Amino acid sequence: MGIGESFSDSVHGSKIIMFCGKGGVGKTTCSAATAVHFADKGLKTLLLSSDPSPSLSDILEMDVSRTITEVENVKNLYAFELDYDTVLKMWKERFGDEVYEVVSSFLPVGEEIIDYIAGAPGIDEEFLLSYILDIYEKRSYDVIVWDTAPAGGTLQLLKLEEKVYKHLGEAARLYLRVKGVLKKIKRKRGGNPLDIINDWRELSERTLNMLKDENTEAIVVTIPEALGVYQTGRIIKELGSVGIRVSRVIVNYVLPEDLCDCDFYRERVKMQKKYIDLLKKQYYKEPGLTILPLLPHEVKGIDAIRKVESLLFET
User: Fold this and answer.
1) What's the angle, vertex CA 141, arms to CA 138 and CA 143, rounded to 5?
2) Where are the domains of the chain?
3) Would the CA dihedral through 62, 76, 68, 125 be positive or negative?
4) In this model, does residue 179 exceed pLDDT 50?
5) DSSP labels for 50-85?
6) Are 230 and 21 contacting, i.e. CB atoms less than 8 angstroms apart?
């Protein structure tokens, strides 16, 4: 059974489809196939990758790492593979002055603090969330297909983000009240740093609302092995904890049962069947399960991607 039933062919507003799972399970391949599917239906589609070890350019066989790029030979499809240097530059352009204004309100620091903060773990994912929010709110694309970082790192950041902004706002408000420096900062800089902090908190709330929206759904990609099965359960639970709807589980790299008669192959098939049965028991009815076979060729180029698309969306 294909995953076509989990998507609406009539998309209202911008739709976000997140592909989640541990590293090496084929998220990028499934993301690319899904993006091609919607682009072929005439929907303007953006394929984004936030994987820290991206392979999107390799799969598409074209460089999409510098900016949003129109994909060759696929009408309506655009792709962007965010690398760290690009993220750092865009983050500093957008938030650098604001961070400096807030931090320097409390401590006499130089602007080199911005370079230090910009190198903090998670800043790349932090920027990507606000980047996707911008695209989503502008309704620039009908569908955004998002190849996420492995094993739900984005979601952990979301939860942390919400707590940090709330705590930061309360701590800053208390500090300024106790020290009585709010008026001095306003006179010195002509603005209120608390307004910036509140803007950050609002940005966090808008991001969470985007991910909880009915037009956002998550596809969890896994493999029929113990680690893949156990992580699938944790990822689905984590997605649910922040209100993100899971619409499908894809089991990738499944061996055909009758391909080979050697002992090694039979044992591998037997092992996979055990975990496929577990996955069926847990997810076949809700949210639904799709079996994707191991292919004899590597998936590179649009023709190969379209073969995966035909398997995923067969009715």
Assistant:
1) 125
2) 4-86+121-312
3) negative
4) no
5) --SS--HHHHHTS--SSS-EEPTT-TTEEEEE--HH
6) no
Residues contacting 155, CB < 8 A, separation 6+: 238, 239, 241, 242, 244
Tell me the chain's radius of gyration from C-alpha atoms. Answer: 22
151 DSSP assignment: G
Amino acid in position 49: S
Cβ pair 34, 146 in contact under 8 A: no
Neighbours of 236 (CB within 10 A): 21
Distance, in Å, from the CA atom of 282 to the CA atom of 279, rounded to the nearest integer, reads: 5
User: Residue 17's beta-bridge partner residues?
Assistant: 145, 217
**Phi, psi (5° rounding) for residue 297?**
-125, 155
What letter represents residue 311's amino acid?
Answer: L
Q: Give me the residue label for tokens 């590179």.
A: 300
Fill in the amino acid letter for 238.
E
- Give backbone dihedrals phi and psi of 97, rounded to 5 degrees, phi first: -65, -40
In DSSP terms, 302 is beta-bridged to none
User: Which residues are known to be catalytic?
Assistant: 51
Closest C-alpha among 235, 94, 55, 96 to residue 154: 235
Question: What angle is formed at CA 285 by the lines to CA 279 and CA 286, rounded to 5 degrees?
Answer: 85
Could you name the CATH architecture of 4-86+121-312? 3-Layer(aba) Sandwich (3.40)
* Residue-level pLDDT at 208: 80
Residue 254 above 80 pLDDT? Answer: yes
Nearest to 213 by CA among 35, 17, 34: 17
Least confident of 1-10, 34-43, 299-308: 1-10
